[in-house]
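Record type: monomer structure entry
Structure origin: computed from sequence
Chain ID: A
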Amino acid sequence: MSSKQLMAVGGTAGVSLIAWRTMFPWIEYDLQTMKAGKKVAKRYNDDIINKRTIIDNFEATVKKIPKKTFVILDDRCFSYEYVNDQACRVANIVIQWNLKKEDSVSIFVHNSIEYIWTFLGLQKLGVITTLLNINIRGDPLVNAIQVTDTKAIIVGQGDDLYNAINELRGKLDVPVYFMGNCAEDVQSWDMLMMKSSPADISPTIRSHINIFTSCCYIFTSGTTGCTVVIRKKFSAHHFWEDCRKYKVTLVQYIGELLRYLIALPENPLDGNHNIKYFLGNGLRQDIWTPIQKRFKIPYIMEFFGASEGTALMYNLCNKPGAVGRISPLMNRLDPAPKYLLKYDLTTATPLRNKSGRCIEVRIGEPGLLICGIPPTCKLENGLYKGNMELTEKKIVRNVFNEGDAYFNFGDSLYLDKDYFAYFHDRVGDTFRWKGENVSTTEVANIITVLSFIIDANVYGVKVPGHDGRAGMASLVLKGNEKLTSEKLKEIYHHCEQKLPKYARPIVLRHEKEMRTTGTFKQHKVTLMGEGFDPNVVSDPMFYLSTEAKTYVPLSQTSHLNFLQSKL
């Protein structure tokens, strides 16, 4: 081919690309995503080809930079080499237990350096680790231990953890080892660690595992050589102080935590830090821009996924509020394409047309998120510990063609004209009132625009004599302020202006602290059960009065009047 021909081809390609960019402006975002995704895909594919697991990557880093700080905790620096030595001590203890490959070891430990090297030590042997939630107690804790084939439990320091396990000792038939100072009648993990050898373990002992093997059990609701800073417990007041002190460049977040940061009093040092990226999920749209502007965060990279999911999405374009993109071009290239489907609000299942196939939603319309199941996903092994029925409940079959299968995230999202995806609601959290669908997330985002409200937990409650569920909102105010008559009027008028009548909360509940799960997700089930009965709820409550044009106190006296009013 001549140089003129080459130039012609190149010129044509250039014109073609310009034409595409003109006709489809969103393609620019696809090019950005593909460029960044290429690096992620290369690392992932390399791990598959070379059969590298988490522990393989960790040990490679130890060899490469042994003296580099791996973890910082309470001003103490722990090198990769030191953590590896402690992990080897753990492995040399557990290797004597002669566990089978399907067995697991449970760790019940607070945020600590011990948590990290205990986990890594178990990984050196290819032992499945059960990550017990330190907040659960009683029978739920027993069940978590029993359903995971746990053959031993390692308990961290703290009277709370000791008491939680000690009260169950009659129900547990596996050995339990306690860290820290403990009673004479229990087995000391610290003593075993002191006597154990730091000699490394040959990788051949974990030859039965690969990148698809179960690594740990997580009860749902890594780094590559960057030093990690951890705290025993999240503290909004110390967060920025720690970031500046340790010159943190990347913050991994859970969205609800950032609401506590934005509630802090403004400080001249707010934008004084080394942070380049915020990476995480669950950052609500209403505080995205305020967080980024006030604290001068260059990039916020929100991702969307599930621990058991077969794919994930990520927003690499710094687009406020977006959790990723689902463009036609990317879906054609994606081994796990994603779609938003029309679904039945009551059953939370996809709707189907006359041919029995699922129906995609239009731009701007909320839909149930599903994604393909790539060949690398070994579905026959199951997504959950237990029988395959649990896995099957998360699979939607015969979606567009006979025999196809997709993973159901159980969340509704919507797209804008550039195919950016935004979280709408958790399917099941959306409720119907006055024949209309109400998104709890959407209502919460609007209410929390008010400057004196830190957080709003919106949920549907049953009202006698009415179909569906009416909206109720549990509010937490800044500085534990009172919900005064002025604030109640402001909430009323704000909701009147910003929300359709059916979506306005009929009852407000004022709590001092927001109830959250162990992973900082809002707790709705208990609140829904308590409803708005003054005999059950001790917190101040207020109901919407169109006559008074405000929210008025809901007491035992006014409760009946409220139920008889026109809702």
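Annotation 1: The chain has four domains: 10-49, 54-218, 234-304, 429-564.
Annotation 2: The longest strand covers residues 405-415.
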